[in-house]
């Protein structure tokens, strides 16, 4: 039996919940590189300045390696480094934010430029508890920027929702592996 390691990158703008998702999935055992936030425009005390890292042993001996990227554009030089060798990515977007103020499109572009064809799932955080959790302006944004990518509301603190998101991504990864085996 071959043990596989799965490298997954969690990307998205500052404050979207990347560190929280990595911490949730690793049950609080991830390594984080947070420093005091110096951007007064963002109401967040700390921010990731290098990457978050956590790993999880999966049933059957496989291992999941999670890398949380910094969200600010000034750290965009690290995005290609983190994407190298990745099997998939989760892009988190703060659903309560204005679509005009997000860097989510830049994160998707970094994936397209550095890891074309990489399986990606988009998670909308901070959506609230409405019947239609992804706001209409975000639905329009998805049609313009990522019409083929699966997107779902996600509370990164909720283990069940975090696992559902990972299951969706891992299903895409497995489908790609099966398709590649038949080429």
Automatic annotation (TrEMBL):
InterPro entries linked: Gliding_Motility_GTPase (IPR052705), P-loop_NTPase (IPR027417)
Pfam family, one: Roc
PANTHER family: ATP/GTP-BINDING PROTEIN-RELATED, GLIDING MOTILITY PROTEIN MGLA
Name used for this protein in its record: ADP-ribosylation factor-like protein
């Amino acid at each position: 039996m071959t043990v596989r390691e799965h490298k997954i990158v969690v990307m998205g703008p500052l404050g979207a919940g990347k560190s929280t998702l990595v911490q949730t999935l690793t049950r609080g055992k991830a390594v984080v590189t947070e420093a005091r936030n110096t951007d007064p425009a963002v109401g967040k005390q700390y921010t990731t300045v290098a990457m978050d890292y956590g790993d999880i042993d999966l049933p059957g001996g496989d291992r999941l390696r999670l890398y949380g990227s910094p969200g600010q554009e000034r750290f965009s030089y690290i995005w290609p480094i983190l994407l190298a060798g990745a099997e998939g990515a989760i892009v988190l977007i703060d659903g309560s934010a204005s679509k005009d103020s997000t860097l989510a499109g830049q994160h998707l572009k970094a994936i397209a430029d550095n890891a074309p064809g990489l399986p990606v799932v988009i998670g909308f955080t901070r959506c609230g508890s409405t019947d239609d959790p992804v706001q209409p302006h975000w639905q329009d944004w998805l049609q313009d920027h990522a019409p083929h990518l699966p997107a779902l509301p996600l509370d990164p603190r909720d283990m069940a929702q975090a696992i559902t998101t990972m299951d969706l991504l891992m299903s895409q990864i497995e489908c790609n592996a099966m398709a590649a085996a038949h080429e």
